[in-house]
Design brief:
The protein is an alpha+beta fold. The protein is built from four helices and five strands.
Length: 185
């Protein structure tokens, strides 16, 4: 045999030995990992206690409203947010949206609000209803106190945030709540 052929055979044998050694190593480490997974009780697991681990939480009682109370609160919050939100770009649109949710008394009030359509600078208020509390409720009437956040925006887009409550009086008309009066406080 010539020298080149011997070199090739020796290299082939060396590569085969390396591959077998690698395969043996992979199988051995695989067996060790399996035995560790089977004997997890033998491995000490460190336990770390966070300072909050001993905090005891008290359950919070959530007030459950009846369907009547729920619908009254939702109407009062939605109505107040729309009633209190307006801009000079869309004068009176918020009031028109409220007409189907209003009693005839409230419709008359909304229709008689005088709007100034000659305004030259932008101005607007965005009202968000934050929470609502039932002051009084029965089968035909309800009074809800709605807490709101108002954001007043001027022509320079400067914002002023303030909070205002609204007293909303509702009347039930054929299984549907309607707003009869809204007073800012």
């Amino acid at each position: 045999m010539d020298k080149d052929k011997r070199k090739k055979i020796l290299w082939a044998i060396a590569i085969i030995i390396l591959l077998l050694a690698f395969l043996f190593w992979v199988l051995r480490t695989s067996d060790k990992n399996n035995s560790i997974n089977e004997n997890t009780n033998d491995i000490p697991v460190p336990v770390f206690k966070a300072p909050s681990a001993n905090v005891q939480y008290q359950p919070v009682e959530v007030a459950k409203e009846s369907p009547t109370e729920f619908s009254a609160i939702n109407l009062a919050k939605s109505y107040t947010a729309r009633y209190g939100s307006w801009s000079t770009d869309n004068q009176g649109a918020n009031l028109v949206e409220l007409l189907p949710l209003s009693t005839s008394r409230m419709k008359d009030y909304l229709n008689n609000i005088e709007l100034n359509f000659a305004v030259e600078e932008f101005s607007g208020i965005t009202t968000k209803s934050l929470s609502a509390k039932i002051v009084a409720i029965n089968d035909t009437n309800a009074e809800i106190l709605v807490k709101t956040q108002k954001i007043k925006t001027n022509a320079n887009l400067e914002k002023e945030v303030y909070y205002q409550d609204a007293q909303v009086k509702l009347v039930k008309s054929s299984d549907k709540w309607l707003v009869d009066q809204l007073t800012w406080q």
